[in-house]
Amino acid sequence: MKFAVLVFPGSNCDIDCYKAVEDTVGQKVDFVWHTATDLSGYDAILVPGGFSYGDYLRCGAIARFAPVMNEVIKAAEQGKFVLGICNGFQILTEAGLLPGVLRRNENLKFRCHSALLEVVNNNTAFTNQYNEGEIIDIPIAHGEGNYYCDDETLAKLQSNNQIVFRYKAGANPNGSIDDIAGISNERGNVVGMMPHPERAIDEILGSADGKRMFTSILNAWREQHGAAVNG
Amino acid sequence: MKAKVYVTIKENVLDPQGTAVQGALHTMGFAEVGSVRIGKYLELELDTNDKAEAEARVKAMCEKLLANVVVEDYRVELEG
């Protein structure tokens, strides 16, 4: 299986994502520059955190028009796995791959600390190694993670089981609607989340709970491809 | 021709920055201040004299990039 980690001017979690793939699942992984026009060789696309284009205009608004984003949209249409983390989540909403928008945190503070999440949907390519309802510890680091969508969209997210992670009840750090920390598209192959699983892959980092997101992706890919365990 | 674009947060969407500024103004004694909404102001120099065309093109720019219409409204003024 082959992973791509996209790199925009201002990405700063790209190396963490790359190392996380190496350390958790040991699969092939490449950095792919924002100008790339071919992602056909990759099975999973990671859109990392950071401040692409300095967050000018709106977070993710300009990155969304980078040449590589057309390829990300194609990959998503082909059913490949796309995971946007933090600024990556913002980019995916701006690109229309995920509904809604990430607004300024309600308290206006940049929140950088560990956060407890509830795994709401463990029936995705990104969460199949977790239990439904499991509480996991994954750090957050954002100033604009306050997820918002209109009531109609929220009802759809709920009824289609597209809410993947919620902040633990009573511990919503940013005011996001329905305590949403991460969502998927309808098909389930595109997920965006504000917390950083790539920063939680070893106990020495404070938590290893993020590791299973990467093993989930590999597991899902193997199931799709009937690949050997060493694939 | 010049286009002035005003991007504002939709009325039904909370504006945390505006609320913080309102609180600061109240603390300073400007008790008459009701709600405060913060937005963006952009000036675009356009290489055209065709007002109708400019209006349509700037509208497209707003819809695609300058505003996120999920939470923002925009208003365009053309000059010259």
From TrEMBL, chain A:
Xref: Gene3D superfamilies: 3.40.50.880
Top-level taxon: Bacteria
GO biological process: 'de novo' IMP biosynthetic process
Predominant location: cytoplasm
Location within or outside the cell: Cytoplasm
Xref: SMART domains: GATase_5
Reactions listed under catalytic activity: L-glutamine + H2O = L-glutamate + NH4(+); N(2)-formyl-N(1)-(5-phospho-beta-D-ribosyl)glycinamide + L-glutamine + ATP + H2O = 2-formamido-N(1)-(5-O-phospho-beta-D-ribosyl)acetamidine + L-glutamate + ADP + phosphate + H(+)
Active site: C86 (nucleophile), H196, E198
Keywords: ATP-binding, Cytoplasm, Glutamine amidotransferase, Hydrolase, Ligase, Nucleotide-binding, Purine biosynthesis
An example Gene Ontology molecular-function term: glutaminase activity
GO cellular component terms attached to this protein's record: cytoplasm
Pathway(s) where this gene product acts: Purine metabolism; IMP biosynthesis via de novo pathway; 5-amino-1-(5-phospho-D-ribosyl)imidazole from N(2)-formyl-N(1)-(5-phospho-D-ribosyl)glycinamide: step 1/2
EC number(s) on file: 6.3.5.3, 3.5.1.2
Subunit and partners: Part of the FGAM synthase complex composed of 1 PurL, 1 PurQ and 2 PurS subunits.
Function: Part of the phosphoribosylformylglycinamidine synthase complex involved in the purines biosynthetic pathway. Catalyzes the ATP-dependent conversion of formylglycinamide ribonucleotide (FGAR) and glutamine to yield formylglycinamidine ribonucleotide (FGAM) and glutamate. The FGAM synthase complex is composed of three subunits. PurQ produces an ammonia molecule by converting glutamine to glutamate. PurL transfers the ammonia molecule to FGAR to form FGAM in an ATP-dependent manner.
Protein name: Phosphoribosylformylglycinamidine synthase subunit PurQ
Source species: Paenibacillus cellulosilyticus
From TrEMBL, chain B:
BP GO terms, sorted: 'de novo' IMP biosynthetic process
Known EC number: 6.3.5.3
One Gene Ontology cellular component annotation held by this UniProt entry: cytoplasm
This protein's record includes keyword ATP-binding: yes
The keyword Lyase appears for this protein: no
Domain of life from the UniProt record: Bacteria
UniProt KW keywords: ATP-binding, Cytoplasm, Ligase, Nucleotide-binding, Purine biosynthesis
One MF term in the entry's GO annotations: ATP binding
Cellular localization per UniProt: Cytoplasm
Coiled-coil regions, chain positions: none
Listed Gene3D superfamilies: Phosphoribosylformylglycinamidine synthase subunit PurS
Pathway: Purine metabolism; IMP biosynthesis via de novo pathway; 5-amino-1-(5-phospho-D-ribosyl)imidazole from N(2)-formyl-N(1)-(5-phospho-D-ribosyl)glycinamide: step 1/2
Catalytic activity: N(2)-formyl-N(1)-(5-phospho-beta-D-ribosyl)glycinamide + L-glutamine + ATP + H2O = 2-formamido-N(1)-(5-O-phospho-beta-D-ribosyl)acetamidine + L-glutamate + ADP + phosphate + H(+)
Family: Belongs to the PurS family.
Main function: Part of the phosphoribosylformylglycinamidine synthase complex involved in the purines biosynthetic pathway. Catalyzes the ATP-dependent conversion of formylglycinamide ribonucleotide (FGAR) and glutamine to yield formylglycinamidine ribonucleotide (FGAM) and glutamate. The FGAM synthase complex is composed of three subunits. PurQ produces an ammonia molecule by converting glutamine to glutamate. PurL transfers the ammonia molecule to FGAR to form FGAM in an ATP-dependent manner.
PANTHER family from the UniProt entry: PHOSPHORIBOSYLFORMYLGLYCINAMIDINE SYNTHASE SUBUNIT PURS
NCBIfam families: phosphoribosylformylglycinamidine synthase subunit PurS, PRK05974.1
Assembly: Part of the FGAM synthase complex composed of 1 PurL, 1 PurQ and 2 PurS subunits.
Protein name: Phosphoribosylformylglycinamidine synthase subunit PurS
Organism (species): Paenibacillus cellulosilyticus
Gene of this entry: purS
